[in-house]
Amino acid sequence: EQQDIARDNVSFLEKLLKSIRREDLVSQLQQFVEEGEVNAPNDQPDVHEKPIEVICNNVGRNWKMLMRKLDLSEVQMDRIVEAHPRDLREQLVQSLREWQKCRGRDAKVTDLIKALRGCDMNLVADKVEQ
C-alpha cells in the first residue's frame, strides 16, 4: 500500500527478512538482485503479452516448425498434441508456455522473432515487432 517494496526497491523486504532471521531468503533475494532480474526490462514473453497472442493468431498448422526452431523437443510437442488433440490454438499456446518454462528468464521476445524469421514467417515476425 505504501509501496515500500517495489520491483526496483527490495531493501525494505531485505530488512524484514533479516528481522525474522531468514538469512537463506536474504541470500536468495541478493542473488536475484545481482543477476539483474529486478532491473531487467520486461522483454520476457508472458502468456498475457501481445506477442504470444499475435503468434497464436497467425502461425496455425506450422507451429511445430516454429517450436523446433525454439528447440522444443518432439516428445514435448507430442505430449502437448496428446493433451489437446483437436485444438490447434491451444497446442501452440501450451507449446509456447512449455518453451518459456524450459528457457526461464532466457525466453526472450527477440528469440521468438528470430525463430519466426528462421521459419520464413516474416509477416508474423513483423507483427510481433510492432
From TrEMBL:
GO cellular component term, pick one: CD95 death-inducing signaling complex
GO MF, one example: death receptor binding
GO biological process, one term: positive regulation of innate immune response
All residue ranges annotated as the Death domain in the record: 48-130
Pfam families in the cross-refs: Death (PF00531)
PANTHER family the UniProt entry points to: FAS-ASSOCIATED DEATH DOMAIN PROTEIN, FAS-ASSOCIATING DEATH DOMAIN-CONTAINING PROTEIN FADD
Name of the protein this chain belongs to: FADD protein
Organism this protein belongs to: Chloroceryle aenea
Gene: Fadd
